[in-house]
Specification:
The chain is an alpha/beta fold. The protein folds into 2 domains: about 90 residues, Urease, subunit C, domain 1 (Roll); about 290 residues, Metal-dependent hydrolases (TIM Barrel). The protein has 11 helices and 19 strands. It has a 7-stranded mixed β-sheet, covered by helices on one side. A 5-stranded parallel β-sheet has the order 10-11-12-13-14. Strands 5-6-7 form a 3-stranded parallel β-sheet. The longest helix is centred in the C-terminal third of the chain and has 23 residues. It is globular.
């Protein structure tokens, strides 16, 4: 038994912080409240604010930066090792769960196995495996499986699930990373989308789409897609359609607002320019979604342990979402309760309550008052194990 004492536990549903202690046993929270029994270990958090470990929902652990240095024939071993390094970085930053969005060779599946078996440390991985793309489409250069008809997409979707995917990822428009693509470029038909959705539903899971503009998003809503990524050009009609369908949007605002990070990683000038040019519309699209009541998820597209201007990118995304119109509590929910709900893990992670996994982070200041308090994460616990405890 371990007891975290002298802390203020943040209720991420109600938006209040309560002074209490947290008892942890066998990786789970077993009780909130004071108590002292012989043999118990105590960790004094010095009055810090304790909240659930962060969850980020758009992660590519295996990407090479800049993209033009990607070797399509890279050894799978190198890809797995890169994923492992980034997973460790994410975990130490306080991101205890990641939802991956297409990884060459399905390397994240192998890393997930290593983490589950206790061979290495890393975040909980909820995987899309390799993703599925039309030939020549946005995902075709990052190791996605290729398909070009409803039947082919259906077969590829089944292959992904057999390989161990937790959800299915498809690419329905162009994006930023390819010079010739546009956000409005359609890359899948309605029938192809419906084929993938039907396979996902048969296994009680859902489909995630790389989506640039409203036309493609409206088509994907009709097909039954539940989770939408980026939404660079999102209007009110599309936002309302997502909300009314019970869907979610992961804006990934850091993609168009991290010029210094891109420069540090030697992105080509045209890529940086294309990202920055998209930033104003991208932010307004997120604002539209928030005004229309769409459930928002935190996602970065940048490896979640990375920093932009010395701030972790998952925290930076939280700050951008506040700028887009969410309250600090709403922004915290994008990386706690909202993703846990979508991934059907809402009885296991995303809250500090008895029966939940002891995935926890602590900050000195109250993030309910100022979201920038998340910059000061100094304590990280995953499944009851202390990953990081800085002296403050």
């Amino acid at each position: 038994m371990t007891i975290l004492r002298n802390c203020r536990v943040i209720d991420v549903k109600e938006g209040v912080a309560r002074e209490t202690s947290v008892k942890v046993q066998k990786g789970q929270i077993v009780e909130l409240g004071e108590g002292r029994d012989p043999g118990e270990d105590f960790i004094d958090l010095g009055g810090a604010y304790l909240l659930p470990g962060l969850i980020t929902c758009h992660v590519h652990l295996g990407h090479v930066f800049p993209f033009n240095e990607t070797d399509p024939n890279e050894s799978p071993a190198l890809t797995v090792l890169r994923c492992y390094r980034r997973g460790v970085d994410a975990l130490r930053a306080g991101i205890t769960t990641v939802r991956t969005m297409s990884t060459r060779y399905g390397a994240d599946i192998h890393l997930r196995t290593m983490i589950r078996n206790g061979w290495v440390e890393g975040p909980r991985i909820v995987s899309a495996c390799r993703g599925i793309s039309a030939t020549g489409g946005h995902g075709s250069r990052i190791g996605a499986l290729l398909a070009d008809s409803p039947d082919e997409f259906r077969k590829r979707a089944r292959e992904e699930l057999v390989a161990g995917a937790d959800h299915l990822k498809i690419f329905i428009t162009g994006g930023i990373s390819h010079r010739e693509e546009t956000f409005g470029e359609p890359q899948m038909t309605l029938e192809e989308m419906e084929a993938v959705v039907s396979v996902a539903r048969s296994k009680n899971t859902y489909v995630v789409v790389h989506s640039g503009d409203s036309g493609a998003i409206l088509k994907a809503v009709r097909a039954g897609v539940l989770s939408f990524e980026h939404g660079y050009l999102l209007d009110r009609e599309a936002a309302r359609a997502i909300r009314e369908s019970g869907g979610y949007l992961t804006p990934t605002l850091v993609v168009t607002r991290s010029a210094n990070w891109m420069k540090e990683h030697r992105f080509e000038p045209w890529t940086i320019e294309k990202a920055l040019d998209a930033a104003p519309d991208h932010l307004e699209s997120a604002r539209t979604a928030i005004r229309e009541g769409v459930k928002i998820l935190n996602g970065t597209d940048i490896p979640p342990g990375e920093k932009d201007d010395d701030v972790n990118v998952v925290v930076r995304e939280c700050e951008h979402l506040v700028e887009a119109g969410l309250s600090p509590l709403g922004s915290i929910q994008t990386c706690t309760t909202n993703p846990a709900e979508l991934m059907k893990l809402d009885k296991q992670i995303g809250k500090v309550e008895p029966g939940y996994q002891a995935d926890l982070v602590a900050t000195q200041e109250n993030p309910l008052k100022d979201i920038q308090a998340l910059r000061g994460i100094f304590f990280v616990m995953q499944s009851g194990k202390v990953i990081r405890q800085d002296h403050v």
